[in-house]
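Q: What structure does this chain adopt?
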Amino acid sequence: MTDEPPVVIRRLSYRIGDRRLLDEAELSVAAGESVAVMGPSGTGKSTLLALLVGLDKPFAGEIRVAGQDVPRLGGARLAAFRRDRVGMVFQFGELLPELEPVENVALAGLLAGRSRRDALAEARALLAEVGLPVRPGVTTAALSGGERQRTAIARALMGAPPVLLADEPTGSLDGPARDRITRLLFDLPRSRGCALVVVTHDSAVAAAADRTVLLRAGKLVEEPALIGGAR
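A:
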């Protein structure tokens, strides 16, 4: 048993060509805590998420997610880590439009080796949790932007991963839908005990996080003015 936080970054460095996106950056996110990462476009916010799930390798430093030394994982171990330990929400959902929402959510369970019956049962429960009713025959393509993001969040929760990552999850939504998805997303660490890291350009979204850090000159700098925003 360990008291290590689900997300730990120590002295993390990464560069593309002669551009240093991360320069001995540090970050720790506890279970039940949410952190928003802000910064101008091109500073490396999405790269940070890619490093957390092992899509990129750091030049130096340590990345531990859900107890795993991510840069040292490879092959089947890395695939299993992404499948079982991390839930991911993207800006545009990245759902299969021809499938119904419950099928999109259940697919994550099927890929993890769950039976069809169990995967569908959990998918229905997760859709109810995020406030999206199951409507047989209605494909994901017919949903509104907010409904698609609710589906994406439900899919990310399949299997109860200890870490949730979200890359501009409200970037394609209008004001009311943005606010609803923001409340839903930032309530999850408290209700489920997971760690949440959200990359966003939107200060109103970041204000809902327990903490906000700015990615500035390769460092992750805590922004006191945005800590403990509206709930």
